[in-house]
Predict the structure of Minor tail T domain-containing protein.
Amino acid sequence: MSAAEFAFWKAYRDRHGFPVDRLEAGTVLAGVATARAMGSKVEPKHLIPRFGPQRVSMKTLAAQLAALPGAKVRYIPRPDRKPKQLPPAPDGPGPAPKVLNPRR
């Protein structure tokens, strides 16, 4: 590709943009063409993979974690709930701590 053609495509991209800038676009378009040849009405946006964080329900997350070999899911903290607050500390010195083993 010459420098002039590269400058043309850069200007085109800056003005119009490309719908998908990832390598997966070619695979998606091939999949759409194959699906449409078989009578499907699939759109490219249905086959483009989504990257980044996605919202998952706690039940789905617990099921996914429980499916791991040897995993036991007992409690999953919910980020939307605030943790329980500890009672305020007393102003003066509190009771002496209990000694678990006084012989030591």
In short: Residues 3-16 form the longest helix (14 residues). The helical segments are 3-16, 24-37, 44-47, 58-66.
